[in-house]
Amino acid sequence: MSTSLFLILRILFAWAVAIVVAGLVWSAIFNGVGGIFWLLVLGLTTMATLGAITHLRRVKLIAGRIDAATISAHQQRRIELPLDVDAAFALVAAAVRELPRAEDIEESRGSLQVRARVRRNDPFGGTQPSRWNLLARFAITHDRVLATVQPGDGISSATLLCEPDAPHWVDLFALDEGSNFENAEALQRSVSRRVAEQRRDEQAAAERSATDNALTVARLNLLMAQVEPHFLYNTLANAQVLARTDPARCEQMIGHLIQYLRRSLPREHDALSTLGEELERTRAYLEILRIRMGARLELHIEVADELKQVQLPSMMLQTLVENAIKHGLEPKPGGGNIWILARRFDDHATVTVADDGQGFGGATSGTGIGLKNLRERLRLTYGERASFSIVSNFPSGVAATLSLPLPETTTVPPPLQGVANAEGEARHG
């Protein structure tokens, strides 16, 4: 109540001073103060009082309270923004542009300022500010907005200034009817809403990414579970027979099986293995098969030490070797050879598993789930950066090749010859 009374008294005092000065001038011109002058004084006093009351009434409707902060025609807001300076400036500029009745918008990205003029609106539906506040209706038609962004270390702040588009002395006689308080609150709400929306979008994107990652891991685990180690059951059965007939070979087979299982134990967050680790697991697997197949199986490995750090999905190399054994060499009378070759080409490495078994025209045929899972695991792990191909070998058998991306930091010397030449020498050597 005291704030409202002080505002009215301030307005009336300013008008009283102006009336005294006007009365002195009037008296000097017309040799006295007549009735017309006092009628003008009464009219001006009434308009000033009604203007102050209208201002207080509308501020009360907008803000819900009346105090020194709400009745002022000059409003300032400072907002902290958890954004870098460019994003903060774009957000504040968009909020100013969407302010109702905003005109003459000027954006200066260099000085991080946005200026605009806002046309006043009559709350009673007309085009002028108020039917009672005549001076505001005819003299002040716009407010101005100045938004300044202050850069910080990972965080920015915005200062919003809303005031009448008129000299400051006009505040002594005419009020803005809460239009600048309304503009400042609208800008603050708009900026806060945009920051909240951006945070929600970032949170939703993070949740989608986490969900996609979890789904990818689940699919990879499912695919890994479908890599069926057929030889495990056969190995245990053979070890049972050898325990009675040839204990030395049984002990040797169990030792290789232990080495294989040790290399096959899953590790936390380990979706990728290295070529060196996969070779050790595959060697243990092949040594077990050599005990079973004897001289029918010959192994040739050509992998440079530098390439043993190349990453690939776990168990993928063994999948290719298992296919070569099961569909190529085991059905072939007399067995045959398996080659494991690795070469580097620019930004990728190739890993080839080749055999001279029965090839595609053999009597055995599988379900294809192993190679299907292999392709799916490559896609989930590398996207389009990896590939898999399988072709007929010469003069017989099959050659399966993985093309894997290399990290940029890999420093492997280029090969002296291509994979095809190396494969040819290995197969015919």
Main attributes of the structure:
429 residues, alpha+beta, Heat Shock Protein 90, 3 domains, five-stranded mixed sheet, 51% helix, rod-shaped
> Which shape, going by the Cα principal axes?
rod-shaped
Question: Helix count, per DSSP?
Answer: 12
Compute the CA-based radius of gyration: 43 Å
Strand content: 15-25%
The CATH superfamily label of the largest domain reads Histidine kinase-like ATPase, C-terminal domain
Specify the CATH class of the largest domain. Alpha Beta
Report the biggest beta sheet as strand number plus sense, adding barrel if it closes: 5 strands, antiparallel
Alpha-carbon distance between the two ends: 105 Å
Q: Can you walk through the features of this model?
A:
The chain is an alpha+beta fold and about 425 residues long. The chain folds into 3 domains: about 1-70; about 75-190, START domain (Alpha-D-Glucose-1,6-Bisphosphate, Chain A, domain 4), CATH 3.30.530.20; about 225-429, Heat Shock Protein 90. The chain is about 50% helix and about 20% strand. The protein has helices at about 1-30, 35-65, 70, 85-95, 135-140, 180-225, 230-245, 245-265, 275-295, 315-330, 370-380, 420-429, and strands at about 75-80, 100-110, 115-120, 140-150, 155-165, 270-275, 295-300, 310-315, 335-345, 350-355, 385-390, 400-405. Helix 1 (about 1-30) runs antiparallel to helix 2. The radius of gyration is 43 Å and the shape is rod-shaped.
